[in-house]
Design goal:
Blueprint (H helix, E strand, L loop, with lengths): L5 H22 L2 H8 L3 H7 L3 H26 L3 H18 L3 H9 L8 H21 L8 H21 L8 H16 L1
């Protein structure tokens, strides 16, 4: 039995995310990922049967962590506003730790040729329903809103804000806390 070198696997995952962000899913190749991660193509293929399996595994893990965090927020919090604040703080922290992580998942979610993991599709639908139900119960969300409205508002607005800030589309004049508060207000206004 071969020993798995976790450092190599982490380098592979990191370089995959960065390369997908730089070149897109179709522009990234196993050969270039292996080269950037300083491993052989053969080593990479011992762990993943192809690029799709590698990218799907990385996306699955990243989104599962995010979704589990949101489910915990929903268990602990009693308002959509506090859940939303937790989501935005999570995204801000992730973007500081791994600036390419959010763009990686965002690019793949909206790539119509990439097969999004069904487990994550089901999780996001359940999260949206749970947030919608909570918001209708607390009166924070209008009754005519739908699950897709939750997804578009609560996930897209904070992610796009973070992406724009990384690209330098605006000069940040506020503290993170002030920016988070502005995003919360914008999202809540969109749903009410």
């Amino acid at each position: 039995m071969r020993v798995i070198d976790n450092n190599k696997i982490e380098r592979i995952k990191k370089e995959t995310k960065i390369l997908i962000v730089e070149k897109g899913y179709h522009g990234a190749s196993i050969a270039e990922i292996a080269k950037r991660a300083n491993v052989s193509d053969g080593y990479l293929y011992r762990h993943y049967k192809n690029k799709s399996a590698l990218v799907s595994d990385i996306l699955e893990i990243q989104l599962e962590q995010f979704h589990d965090y949101i489910f915990k927020l929903l268990d602990d919090e009693k308002s959509v506003r506090t859940v939303l604040e937790g989501i935005i703080i999570f995204l801000f922290n992730l973007s500081k730790k791994e600036p390419y992580a959010i763009k990686f998942s965002h690019m793949l979610v909206y790539d119509h040729e990439f097969e999004y993991p069904k487990s994550r599709h089901d999780a996001i639908n359940k999260l949206s329903k749970d947030i919608l139900d909570l918001g209708k119960k607390t009166g924070e969300i209008l009754q005519n809103n739908r699950e897709i409205d939750i997804q578009l508002t609560i996930l897209t607005i904070p992610v796009k804000f973070i992406e724009y800030s990384h690209k330098g589309y605006y000069e940040q004049m506020l503290t993170d806390k002030e920016e988070i508060e502005r995003i919360i207000k914008l999202c809540m206004k969109a749903l009410n």
